[in-house]
Amino acid sequence: MEQTALQNVSSDSATSVCMDNSKDDAKSYRKVREKRECPRTITGDPGQGRPLKRARSDCAVTQKHENFYILDGNTVIEVDGVLFKLHRSRLVTKSSFFAQLLEHNIRDSFSDDDVWVENDSKVTIYHLGNITTADDLVALLKFDDNPTEYYFQPPPFSVLAPILRATTALRFETYRVWAAGVLGQTWSSSLEDLTPEPRENAAEIIALARLCDVNSGVKRALYELSRTRQIGLDGNVILEQLGLEQIGHADRKCVELMRELSVTTWPKIAVRSGRSSCKKEKSFALRETCLFENCIDQAATWDKRVHDSGLYTKFLFDPVCGAQALINIPWEKEDWCADCIQSQRAIWKKRQRKLWSDMDKWIPGHE
């Protein structure tokens, strides 16, 4: 016989269920789960990752969570048909959401679809209808059990994403600040941290940041999409290949503009110096020989280092890292004098910084 939430909490006969899906957290947000008593999915809008609206009757059948239905807990919460029994004092201390709900009892602030309360003479159950998901809540509770676990080694995206979603939805502010900070560190927008190696989950990073209203990692992820050779500028192609249904229109437009700027700027950065003269002061009568001022030798050197080596083609869509690659070439081995090398590297660095800065104007919400 199927039991309601109240019957389940009042009885010890219910079978527990383990929702330990930490390895599949990221995948669960890319697919619509079928045949669930409490279905949840994502949409193609900025609300991506939020649970679908559900009626109160959707989760009449419930099961106790294997690890987080704590025997000495005193607050019962239901999410996606899973019952959690937790310690009230810790919830209200860590979360302004639960402080508002439990400590101050301000239930009028919540929509009936988001939160409703079921009780009898024995127990009270708080149903979180459209606030978060069971998987995200489990990820948050695991982190709360051992918050120092990832202080020295950042968690993988599959762990970080549900923590950030849950801390945002349930207003665990201290943990939310930490999670947003980790996202910003692992997807740093600092020019010094940018490397040419490709990164995964770029589109997912953008979707997560938009959902949780943070800017952490957005610029780096947008640039990652813009420089990816395997994708076109068609938004659908980008999303199909990266496993997401959709990122916002404004972000897709930003990717297109970044890519266009990259393709048009790289030839200007990697242009051969032409008839430039040696930068060493002419007052030096006995100065070292510098092939920079010899147009023929200069062209041959440039072709060897930039074109024949494949560097020009490699960085066609990534001029920011391409400029750094030019700077890193050991030009002294090509008999360029120290003054010419210093001057050219300064020019490349200036263009690199300007290009990275110019992209900010297209990033939605960038300050």
> Strand fraction band?
5-15%
Task: Output mean pLDDT.
Answer: 79
Helical amount among residues, as a percent range? 40-55%
List the helices and strands in order.
HHEEEHHEEHHHHHHHHHHH
List low-pLDDT spans. 13-48, 282-287
> What is the strand tally?
5
Task: Specify the number of helices.
Answer: 15
Radius of gyration: 28 Å
Features:
15 helices; alpha/beta; 7% strand; 5-stranded mixed β-sheet; elongated; 367 residues
Fold blueprint:
Blueprint: H1 5-10, H2 25-28, E1 63-69, E2 75-79, E3 82-86, H3 88-94, H4 96-103, E4 115-119, E5 124-128, H5 134-145, H6 157-169, H7 173-186, H8 202-211, H9 218-226, H10 235-242, H11 249-269, H12 295-308, H13 311-314, H14 319-328, H15 338-358
Parallel strand pairs: 1-3, 2-5
Antiparallel strand pairs: 2-3, 4-5
Helix pairs in contact: 3-4, 5-6, 6-7, 8-9, 9-11, 11-14, 11-15, 14-15
Structural description of this entry:
This protein is an alpha/beta fold. 44% of the residues lie in helices and 7% in strands. The chain has helices at residues 5-10, 25-28, 88-94, 96-103, 134-145, 157-169, 173-186, 202-211, 218-226, 235-242, 249-269, 295-308, 311-314, 319-328, 338-358; strands spanning 63-69, 75-79, 82-86, 115-119, 124-128. A five-stranded mixed β-sheet has the order 1-3-2-5-4. Helix 9 packs across helix 11 (249-269).
